[in-house]
């Protein structure tokens, strides 16, 4: 029996692209209220990012995230919702993460969204591209 050839991840794999996170260790600026702080992003996807942060932010709070992509000095800006908080030392089902916040992208310019999609597509098409799907952490009562 012949194996099916593997299809490259690209625009035709939009559903997959929405669920994938890639490793992305880069500085970013996080603005919550009138305070902006420098943080490190740990992973990045089409719908959000995980940011290392020692102190929690309230789930549901609106924040602004600005970061650049490798090889490009023009920052992308996303309005985000704090989707979840990962406290220091807490276990996760899929991998180890530092303390930080899961950010869901809520709003951005069309250009920033296109640039992010193109970067993710190119990353996934590289043969050594590492990717993973990270489910949201379970709540204390076991629900997502």
Describe this structure in words.
This protein is an alpha+beta fold and 144 residues long. It has one domain (13-125): predicted glycosyltransferase like domains (Thrombin, subunit H). It contains two helices and six strands; from the N terminus they run αββββββα. The chain has helices at residues 14-19, 110-125, and strands at 21-32, 35-45, 48-52, 62-67, 76-86, 100-108. It has a six-stranded antiparallel barrel. A hairpin with a 2-residue loop joins β1 (21-32) and β2. The termini are far apart. 23% of the residues are buried. Mean pLDDT is 82; it is low at 1-12.
Number of strands: 6
CA-based shape: globular
**Which topology does CATH recognise?**
Thrombin, subunit H
Q: What is the count of structural domains? A: 1
CATH architecture descriptor name: Beta Barrel
Q: Share of helix among residues?
A: 10-25%
């Amino acid at each position: 029996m012949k194996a099916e050839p593997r299809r490259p991840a690209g625009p035709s794999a939009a559903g997959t692209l929405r669920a994938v996170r890639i490793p992305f260790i880069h500085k970013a600026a996080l603005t919550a209220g009138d305070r902006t702080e420098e943080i490190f992003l740990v992973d990045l996807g089409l719908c959000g990012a995980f940011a290392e942060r020692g102190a929690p932010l309230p789930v549901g709070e609106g924040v602004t995230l600005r970061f650049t992509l490798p090889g490009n000095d023009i920052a992308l800006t996303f309005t985000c919702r704090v989707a979840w908080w990962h406290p220091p030392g807490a276990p996760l089902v899929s991998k180890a993460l530092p303390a930080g916040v899961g950010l869901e992208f809520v709003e951005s310019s069309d250009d920033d969204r296109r640039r992010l999609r193109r970067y993710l597509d190119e990353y996934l098409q590289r043969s050594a591209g590492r990717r993973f799907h990270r489910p949201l952490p379970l709540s204390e009562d076991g629900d997502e």
